[in-house]
Amino acid sequence: MEQHEDSVAFAWETPYLTAALPGVGGLLRAELEDFVVEEVPAYTPCGEGEHTFFGVEKRDLSTPRLVEAIASALGISPRDISYAGLKDARAVTRQIFSVQWLSPETLLGLQLENAQVLWATRHTNKLRVGHLRGNRFTIRIRELHPEALARATAILNTLAQRGVPNGYGVQRFGNDGRNAEIGLLLLRNDRAGLRARGIHHLSFWQHRFYLSALQSELFNRYLAERLQRGLLDTVLVGDVAKKHATGGMFTVESAEVDSLRAQAGEISATGPIYGFKIWSPQGEMATLEAEILAAAGLKLADFQPAKLKGSRRPVRYMPEGLAWRSEGDALVVEFFAPKGAFATMLLRELMKSDVELDEADDAEED
Prior knowledge:
By secondary structure, this protein is α+β, with helices and mostly antiparallel strands. Among the domains are: 43-129, TruD, catalytic domain (Pseudouridine synthase, 2-Layer Sandwich), CATH 3.30.2350; 170-317, Pseudouridine synthase, CATH 3.30.2350. It has nine helices and 15 strands. A hairpin with a 5-residue loop joins strand 9 (240-243) and strand 10 (249-251). Helix 4 (178-188) packs across helix 6 and helix 6 (204-228) packs across helix 8 (284-295). The radius of gyration is 21 Å and the shape is globular.
């Protein structure tokens, strides 16, 4: 691996899983309705309790702006409104919120600009970040290559079988990867380096954001190496694997047996969201994880002052219900992605271009 001792300045280096298959090209979001996201909840509200869950469809509006508008209309603080994840602004999105001590009728009566309350019902607890199964996408791509449908069929059949590389999209890293670089400086407590980049005061959440960008960059480097070695949809002895159905993790002892499970889409290898208490693999992948960390001039103990314990992230996600069709001059793609996964990663494989969307995460990671 190339060494980067002084910086982790972001460069998009993640290879394509479908590099041998030409992309469809095209244009995203020519119209607002070309990008539709629907949140899929982790559970159904029970119909009674002191909290009210309500679903909202918003158009061309960010989640924080919508929360402010709802709070203003209800005469409460934005902090009193809970949601499971942030959703794209430049899109038509449907997501769920909760609020305490207000009736469903009150929520259904809200009049909002560029948003509509679709339903409301009671539940026993508040909605929390990450309380969703994932998101269902309906995406329309325009200005396509003349052979777009045939190309899409080849690529999407491959992704349905082998999975989508579960990297972080370019939007997380900012211009020229600056966010990950700031995260590295924060982790090193390099105040001079931060001042040189115009960083003087950060809120708690800004601090966490930059550190998360660093963790994401390091994961993407691991993913790139795994792709280059042809190891996206298989496992090695010593890998930490994750069961897609239950979320349970285990260390692989038989590559022969568990690689068959991986090829069936039952399990996937995981990569590091680095932290001082991360569950580390053994063997070849343990060496790779150590090399990536050393290349950034870091060790696991460096994450302890920031209280980043670390976690594991699957190296791929299996797009459920993946379907596609021609519709006039456009290609329409529909699929479900689990929480924390980026639609960007499927779209870049399909279009063969780096796709920037204002996607936001639905899951908190340490």
